[in-house]
Amino acid sequence: MLPKPDHLQRLKDYAPFLLRVVCAWKLYDAAGHTALHPAEGIPGYADWLSTLHFPFPVVAATLSAYTEFLGAISLLLGWKTRWFCIPLVINFILAVIAGHWAIGDSFTNTFPALILLATSLFLGIHGPGKPSIDEGI
Questions:
Q1: Could you tell me if 46 and 54 are in contact, meaning their C-beta atoms sit under 8 angstroms apart?
Q2: What does the alpha-carbon distance between residue 18 and residue 128 come to, in Å, rounded to a whole number?
């Protein structure tokens, strides 16, 4: 195994920051339309979940939307990152299985949920890195 250059080793703790920012942007982009849009957001999402025969679609849509919205804020700030990753991982496992695979969705459409699942798993295990509130900025 080749030795790692010292200048890259010093940046290792900052690598998760890029993942947090990109993941937070994608979560906010998706959840912002769902959780914060009163007419089309949660009611439209709940209607779609009911077509999949998802139990308690309004409750599920509300929980999913606010998990993503609050998760975006948490990841961006690096606050309680590991704790917020638990509901995010559950949310994206359900999204992949019930929202994509169950309806035979294409890999292209499933890929964003898989990336958010993988990122949530990584940050839940690794932590937020620096800069973050969890790491004392």
A1: no
A2: 10
With bands split at pLDDT 50, 70 and 90, how would you rate the model's confidence at 42? Answer: confident
Express each pLDDT in 44-91 by its tens digit: 889 989 998 999 999 999 999 999 999 999 999 999 999 999 999 999
With H, G, I as helix, E, B as strand and everything else as coil, classify residue 104: coil
Report CA Rg, the chain: 17
The reported pTM is 0.87
CA–CA distance, 42 with 113 (Å, rounded to integer)? 18
DSSP class of residue 96 equals I
Total residue count of the chain as it appears in this document? 137
For the record, the structure tokens of 55 come out as 């139990």
Tokens (6 digits) for 134? 């969890």
Report how far apart, in Å, the C-alpha atoms of 134 and of each of 66, 75, 81 are.
Answer: 21, 10, 7
Q: In terms of DSSP H, where are the helices of the chain?
A: 6-9, 15-35, 41-51, 57-77, 81-94, 107-126
Looking only at Cα atoms, what is the longest distance across the chain? 56
Q: Give the Cα separation of 29 and 112 in Å (integer).
A: 12
